[in-house]
Design brief:
Blueprint lengths: L2 H9 L6 E2 L7 E2 L1 E3 L3 E2 L14 E2 L14 H17 L6 H14 L3 E2 L2 H16 L7 H14 L2 E2 L1 E7 L4 E8 L4 E2 L10 E6 L2
Helix pairs in contact: 2-3, 2-4, 2-5, 3-5, 4-5
């Protein structure tokens, strides 16, 4: 690049940031509390009404719950390792033993919001995992994430007919409702549940 082009390249604001006119070359991101993250592209370079400056990444506030997705990534890795280590004919038996062990460590039922947060964290971690992570692995990893917090859910494995298909999901105890699942999950008849 020529020096003129490189100067323009470095001084042009990128997506998600705007250049602060008070500090040349200083990139500032703004967050709109009602509509997610948006870049501010005003003339003055200052804050617009209702926009707040994002806090830099750093230590979390004391007393706040830990981020669930790193724990979910470890849980997904553990489930996939348990499935793939050993004879292929005993994969499901090994997974069921792991789930039975995890559910035996729980002390209370998970709230629907805790279970939903765990399922979403596992799905987020599963997107980045290089192996197959489908409903069986996601639901088993969600049970593991919640068992670390001593919270329990009911793991279900079911079948639906015409066409025959299998599905695995987790349910919360009050009302035994599937967590973060579509309404079509109600078509499945439960074959196996841990704990019963």
């Amino acid at each position: 690049m020529t020096s003129t082009r490189s100067t323009l390249w470095t001084s042009t604001p990128r997506f998600g940031s705007s250049t602060d006119s008070r500090r040349p070359g200083y990139s500032v991101r703004y967050r709109d509390p009602g509509h997610g993250r948006r870049p501010f592209r005003g003339r003055s370079g200052g804050r617009a009404g209702g926009l707040r400056r994002c806090r830099p990444a750093g230590p979390r506030c004391p007393g706040s719950p830990p981020e669930p997705w790193p724990l979910a990534a470890v849980a997904v890795a553990l489930v996939v390792a348990v499935q793939h280590v050993g004879p292929s004919g005993t994969r499901m038996a090994r997974l069921l033993r792991l789930l039975t062990l995890a559910s035996s460590t729980t002390r209370r039922s998970a709230t629907p919001s805790e279970a939903r947060q765990a399922v979403h964290a596992v799905r987020k971690a599963g997107l980045l995992f290089p192996a197959r992570v489908a409903c069986l692995e996601e639901s088993a990893a969600a049970v593991l994430v919640l068992s670390v917090q001593r919270a329990g859910v009911r793991w279900c494995h079911g079948v639906a007919a015409d066409p025959v298909r299998f599905h695995a999901w987790v349910e919360t105890e009050p009302g035994r409702r599937p967590v973060a699942e579509p309404l079509s999950t109600q078509r499945y008849a439960t074959i196996r549940a841990i704990p019963n």
